[in-house]
# Entry
Amino acid sequence: MSVGIRMIHESAGLHVTGQALYTDDLVERTMNVLHAFPARAPYAHARVAELDPAPALTVPGVVRVLTADDVPGVNDGGIKHDEPLFPDEVMFYGQAICWVLADTLEAARLGAAAVNVRYEQLDSIITVREAIAAQSFQGNAFQLDRGDVDAGLADAAHVFSGEFEFSGQEHFYLETHASLALVDESGQVFIQSSTQHPSETQEIVAHVLGIRSNEVTVQCLRMGGAFGGKEMQPHGYAAIAALGATLTGRPVRVRLTRNLDMTMSGKRHGFHTTWRAGFDDTGRIVALDTQLTSDGGWSLDMSEPVLSRALCHVDNAYWIPNLRATGRIARTNKTSQTAFRGFGGPQGMLVIEDILGRCAPLLGIDPVELRHHNFYRDGQTTPYGQPVRHPERLDRIWTELAECGDLATRRTEVAAFNETNPTANAAWRSHR
# Structure
């Protein structure tokens, strides 16, 4: 294919005409569908002392309540085997304890509200700072090293330290989590799922049902712009639909409302970071010692590779001859955080950008110049040994963006606004 030839996206016509089918659109084309709705916990951390689904069965239209006793295989919806589908210990607010199946979505919702659950509330850990204080961590810790950080900091003309944190981010994909499962005449479990990882969805469904993976077929029509939010998280919902279909003999639909989706599904990982940075008299970074703690939520999901990638992006575009970056994953009573576009890269890059932004006024150097001064140069490598090829492109990009974006004028306007606006960021004034 030649460069410059205009090509039409294969799905463009269906998308712009509204004819594109998403997972939940298939419900209208399927007969006798049961609708699933979760009975959710009102606590961030609690023990399920008693579960009585009987009241839900008195609600007109309710057909069945799925509980842990119904699982023929493994009661777990995650690839790490740390995410029970039907938990006896609540690990985040809004976690599903059981699922109600009914002829209509409204009947399922009313049935879920009728389920009688007695909880024993437990202490919860909500913030990363609380997790650090309680030493609540999970998974593997990671460390990236280059040079002699301690010697570099000892010899540095200027050493600064600090900490900062930032929260996660909602994917807000077009289609919420959705699965439609049925069992065909040969006993094959067929699932339509809004998933980025059909083969893994297949594996999870199979181990929940206690059958072989080749007895499960998973199809994904479209993901609705998943941005990483449907790489690991759809598996449990698909398993609920498949379990219901297997037990009732009817197709089962699991489709989260936007409210449910935002409450129950994972987000981008938030991070807490502490750091010490050393500079020479010209403003070059000579050493950086930093610790990144990610908010993994209640289970691992993709937290380990996300953290690993964050550590490998701490340098961003800058040469740091002596670097020690350590990473760990906090276990908190929140949704299990998951993949998100950038996959840890943005979080890692934010670390060094925040450091340079804070240190520039302390060094008496314009932050734009401090960044430019520390760009990678010829012959340098990343902390993990990758040669940096064509680093001169950094200078070209930097210069062209500053010119075409009229950076100088914009910065003047921003400074004037922050000086006169009563709600301007106080931190900007203290670090300008």
